[in-house]
Every structure is written in C-alpha cells, then in structure tokens.
Amino acid sequence: MIFIKIFLISLWILISGIIALPVCLIYWKKPKVLWVFRKISSFGGLPILGIRTHYEGLENIIHDKPFILLGNHQSALDILTFGKVTPKHAVVIGKKELKWIPVFGQIFYLSGSVLIDRVNKNRAIQQLNSCLDVLKKNFAIGMFPEGTRKKNPDLDLLPFKKGAFHLALQSGTPVVSIVGSSLKNVIDMKHGKCGGIVFLKVLPPVDPIPWRKKPIEEFMNFIREQMLIAYRDVTARAAVQTGKNNT
After folding, report:
1. How many CB atoms lie within 10 A of CB 179?
2. What domains are defined for the chain?
C-alpha cells in the first residue's frame, strides 16, 4: 500500500507543477509561482499520504516584509508540510541539482529561487551574496540550515551551516524558524507504514543586529538550540497523538 501512495504522491506533485507552470507567465521570476505550487501540492498530497498537520505560532510568520525562514530538513515531504504556511513572498535556496528535476526544477527556477553550487565553495558564497538583492526586493528567503536532509530518523538536528546566519547578520533581516516533528512515526518504509500527524511550530522572530558584535557561531548555536528544543517538544507530542489515533 505504501508504494502505491508514493506513486500517487509523485504523480500529484508532477500534476501540481504542470498546473502551476502557466502562473510563470503572469508572475515571471516572482515567488508567487512557488507559492501556488506548494499550495496545490499540499492540498492533495497530504491526504494521499494520510498525513494531518497541526500548526502553532502562525502569528510569528512575517507577511509582506523580508525575513529569513529556517526549517529542519527531513525529506522531500517537507514541501508538503511547510508549504501550507510558507508565505506568498518567499523564495527558497536549494542545491543546483534541483534544476534537473522535471517540472519542479523549472518551477523552482522561474519563481526566482536561488540555486547554490555546494561543490564550488567560492561560487556558493557569491550565490549566497546575491540573496542580499533578493531581500532588497522585499522577498523572504527560505533555507534549510542543516544543508541536507538527515539520513538517520533517530537523529535530532544535523550541524548547521553558516550561510543563513551570514546572510541575516549582513542584511539585518530577522530570522523565523519553522520546526516540524519527526516523520519517523508517519513514514516507515521498512514496515510499510504511512499516515499520522505532524506538528509544526513557528518560533518568534530573532533580530540578528544585537548579535553582530559576537562570533557568528554564538548566533548560529542560539538559533539551533531554540529549534532543537522545539523539535523535541513537537516530536514528543506528535508521537503521543499518533499513538492515540492508532489505538
């Protein structure tokens, strides 16, 4: 059954991209293209997988102003759970390999999102610097500070990369974190399990300006500690709720 669901969700995401592509003609290189894709994907994708979402702290989302949105990266399904609350004016930073994914890669590029060359460090720094111009357009920027998805579902958070924090300190743009509970209890390929509830918590904005006189590691570790506490909290509560629903 789980493989049928995976096939159906893959098909639905492809269809979502095809539906969203014409929006590119109206909003060329604008984040609303990606917003439309996320909304359509989430609308049908989560029910297909039998996943429900519970959101907290939605009042902390900043609308119509630039900010840096951080999230913990677990799987490709993050686009479904985070997509329901990511604002219309948010673009995303991702690895350059994403452009080769049919339809999604084109949506990603045409939304004005930024593709990073993670192999070439100097080029990656230049591309991150270009994000300053994105923020000046009054856009928000979404990033996964872990840099990659975690392979081991038993881990909490991977070590953070510094890119998002350099960007926040240089621009003076507030940082807002969205933390999703572990997907371990809702997606279990080994046992063919799929379904349950995912808790997501939006943390209050953090002003980077007071951190400018301190080492960047302190700022990064402060944000990571906030996200780690939230992750353990929402994961524990989601596991309890999923267990109740399964009894």
Report:
1. 25
2. 2-245 (3.40.1130.10)
